[in-house]
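Predict both folds.
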Amino acid sequence: MEEKETPLRSIREGLGISQEALARRTSLTTGTYRRAENGLPVKYSTAQEILHAINGILKEHDKPEVSLEDIGLTLM
């Protein structure tokens, strides 16, 4: 699958964290996380889990939290 530039990818890369490391912060597989980041539709619960992980990392870096709209996931 071709990797797309998405808001979530930009945020993750800006934090210097890999897809695998971010997936480990959730209960998702790396493949599920990767598909979400590439713009494929995800369940709302999956989006919430990714958002929670991203905001946890942002908090660790003393950066402001983001919203679901900010990470640009496509919901089912």
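Second protein follows, with its predicted structure tokens after the sequence.
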Amino acid sequence: MITGRARTWLLTVLVTVLAGLGIQVMTAGAASAFVGNWRLGTYNMQGSGGGLNGQSKWQSDVYPLMQQGIQVLALQEAGTIPASATNVRNRTLTVHTNDGGYQYFGLTTAEWRPGGSRGATYYIYLLNTDPQGHRVNVAFITNQRADSIATAYGGAGGAGRPALGLRFGNDMFWSVHALSNGGSNAAQLVREINAASAGRNWAAMGDWNRTPESMETQLWNQQQAIAGDVTFYHTRGQETQTHQGGNQLDYMVSNGNDDSVGAGRMQLMSSDHYPVMFYRLHAQADIALTNSADDRFLGLTEKSGRNGVGIDVNETHQDAFGGAWYFDRVGADSVGHDRYRLRNRSTHECLYLPHSNSVAVQEPCDGSLGQMFYARSTPQQANDPMIKIQSSVGNDLCVGEISPNGIDGVPVVLTDCDNTGTYWYWRYAGAAIGTTPIVRYL
């Protein structure tokens, strides 16, 4: 996740002066952390036909994604609605252009129960932005009915596809498909979405056809008035690429800055794009942990599942050295704070640190305090969401590097939580998270 650049000097001075007078000012970019209250996703389907085993991609791709607990899934190149869906309403939406003109696009609203009469009902909203081919359409599928529907002008002199918006209370979500060959209208889409959201919380998800870094530069060059008020949420590390061509095109831009939200690239399905999900840390979900001091991964010292294998930091990730972990809830303490074991996905054994300055090893999971930890929130510093892993053994003892010097094989120890090496970035390692509970921070 990349936050926008610093506010202007004048705003900084104003906030400082007012704070000195006891007056708090909330800027637009920090106005809300609402995105963490939703499980969101985006997927460029590359058309609705050609799914696995001859199925529609709605059935082979979209339905399994919704079964992971997604509440709002933005879709691009969505084709036509599934044949088994019930068409509720067809209507025409008016898009107001920035020169005082109008554009008109057809909207189909449908209800869908792909799991049969006993399955969940999903709500489809499909804007026909491809009136000739009926394939490159923007859409949403949700697990609840939207309160209202909106559009935002696509720009580029009328050549850009409009964004489709759904409102749920004071929260608005937008499905976006910027122009191909570089996303030349991406920054303008952000401006139009911000205006159409009318002061509400908003998050725009989709295929921006340019990387987050170039998108941020484009915003500062073309839409400086809002460039510092948005946050980017996107995949990291080995899961950075969201298109088979090797580019990172699919991500979320929002006026809500939530440090607890990460992005995860899901399994490749029937499209040339990967689905991407945005959510808080969940128990049982595979994550990679990197130390903020030197970007080394938490892993095992050798390719073995035997007891007593050391745990260190290295450059490996999701391989036989055990770069994938998950939080396993073991119940609350006497004052109601949730405790977790940190288990290795390869061996399913637990990180064990029995006392201060002990060196981490993996051991069979049991109920000892040396295997029980709290997930502790910490202010975002850069990139991925960050946590501390605090021990149940004693006050202010956390999992950390013994010496954050950027060398592979550095041991992991139980040390003072104020030490530099106790800050860990987490990112999803691509596994499905289902309906597992959110990890509750200390």
